[in-house]
Amino acid sequence: MEYTILRVDLSKDKIWEEKVGEKVIKKYLGGRGLGVKILYEETEAGIDPFGEENRLIFMTGYATGTAVPLSGRFHVITKSPLTGGIGDSNCGGQFGPMLRFAGYEGIVVQGIADNPVYLYIEDGHAELRDASHLWGKGTWSTEDTLREELGKDINIVSIGPAGENKVMMAAIINDKHRAAGRTGVGAVMGSKKLKAIVVRKGKRKPEVHDEAKLKEAVENVRRIVRESPVTGEALPTYGTAVLVNIINETGGFPTRNFKTGVFEKANEISGEKIAETYLVRKKACWGCIVACGRVTKVETPPYQVDGEGPEYETAWSLGAMCGISDLAAVIKAHNLCDDLGMDPISFGSTVACAMELYENGKIPEEKLGGLKLEWGNPQTVVELAWRTAFRDGFGDEIAMGAKRLAEKYGMPDLAMHVKGLELPAYDPRAYKGHGLGYATSNRGGCHLRAYMIAPEVLGIPEKLDPLTPEGKAQWVKIFQDLFCIVDSMVVCKFITFAVGAEELLSVTNPITGWDWNVDEFMKAGERIYNLERLYINREGFDGKDDTLPKRLLEEPMPEGAAKGHVVELDKMLEEFYRIRGWVNGKPTEEKLRELDIP
Ligand code: SF4
């Protein structure tokens, strides 16, 4: 097995190819794993995320674009400008498979272009082209313009004004609505003056060692995915927003900047409500049999839009987190984030932080340029999306992210973040293991490093009591290692609602020609998680950063199913470090030797 990686130095206007051999692939798999290896080895500690030396890495894995269901994704890895630690984000759409079909498993971009450019790739050939005419455009108009110029048979990832203006939460967008959203990867792309990457559909077939065995394994996985109540029914019927009512009822739907875990109008922004009102049809990423995407349309003023969403996370971040229940406004703000190229989780969370700062009298009226920063005001969120992407007025302050904003106004505890990354849509006072997952996540406040909601709420693979911290550390480690595999092979995480390591291995061996057992497979995931940890340790993060916002540790949940609960983090953390072989948030020499890293 061999990967072909496209290397691009924008400062030197130079493009070349590099091969990655079997030995490295066996250690780091691809995607997220190979990306962090390259970032760790090729960059020094303390580099400027916006400097020439930072790498912006687009990576697929051995499963991308094969017959494996839900394999239409790719991963982006870089040093995050938002957190100063590892920046990485996974994205659906079509781009991952298209990149492989065009000749490459990954792209590593370094340097900074003199003027805006886009990278054009066709049949194993790549070139840089002028993008001056695209600079300033939203991602939707960028895609439309490129399709007019180059024809329909192409796929595009691009940044919008948020990326160009180095907004700390800027995203990279594929197919207008799929986002590598988190950790500010779009701001790094903007700092490099790389507006877009265009891939023309090619004919190269991803390498598969044993087609017949893969076919058999794929049939089994497809059957399990179809039969699962989550991937076979809930997600196709209601999209990810099916979670709104479930999470609200279990008392962990963060409302008004995590003041409570119960939103009184949750149903108004739920998947069920979307299906009744604005849903046009469902939509799938490449090769996906689940189709959790929602195509939606709002026809009535003032929030008309023909677009997609919301997802569970955006229904929350642009809705409950800011006290908003106007579904049309949430859909509008969601689509603005796609078009402007911005992570709606970090954006909505930073707006909510600003609303609470305002409530506490910290933000003077004259700063707001006429905006009403009170809870539940939908116009404010929609207007702030524009102002943030263009760093206009108070939008320039939202563009910093919640941590910097709350520090600036003297109330740092009001920023609901871990390691500088804003938390997503689950209040861990209601799901203790999920809280440990947040605290120990390498990229910061994130639900996708260890999705403990699966066992703590959905009972997958078995039901755990969400309100006890007992026995959660081992589960968090398993999820963290498994998700490293999923992000590195690369498939959609939603596949894990239906299958586990065994089934993922059943497709891995026929593709790669390896003869791995589950332990060897999980060891690769553990290696990747530890290398990420080494990367953030080198950037100054350690045990002091494996924590949660004070509110979640000290303020008991005021109502709902988790009433009276806080997160008992210390006990879980101690057990977690012991299981991981870490001391003070750092892998020991012994652990690193065992995993054969770096
Ligand atoms: S389950 Fe949803 S996000 Fe995952 S690949 Fe399918 S459509 Fe995309």
Automatic annotation (TrEMBL):
Cofactor: tungstopterin; [4Fe-4S] cluster
Coiled coil: none
UniProt keywords, alphabetically: 4Fe-4S, Iron, Iron-sulfur, Metal-binding, Oxidoreductase
Gene3D superfamilies: Aldehyde Ferredoxin Oxidoreductase Protein, subunit A, domain 2 (1.10.569.10), Aldehyde Ferredoxin Oxidoreductase Protein, subunit A, domain 3 (1.10.599.10), Aldehyde ferredoxin oxidoreductase, N-terminal domain (3.60.9.10)
One Gene Ontology term of the molecular function aspect: aldehyde ferredoxin oxidoreductase activity
Group of enzyme by EC: oxidoreductase
Domain Aldehyde ferredoxin oxidoreductase N-terminal: from-to ranges: 3-203
UniProt cross-references to Pfam families, sorted A to Z: AFOR_C, AFOR_N
SMART domains (alphabetical): AFOR_N (SM00790)
Enzyme Commission numbers on file: 1.2.7.5
Family the entry assigns: Belongs to the AOR/FOR family.
Protein name, UniProt field: Aldehyde ferredoxin oxidoreductase
Originating species: Ferroglobus placidus (strain DSM 10642 / AEDII12DO)
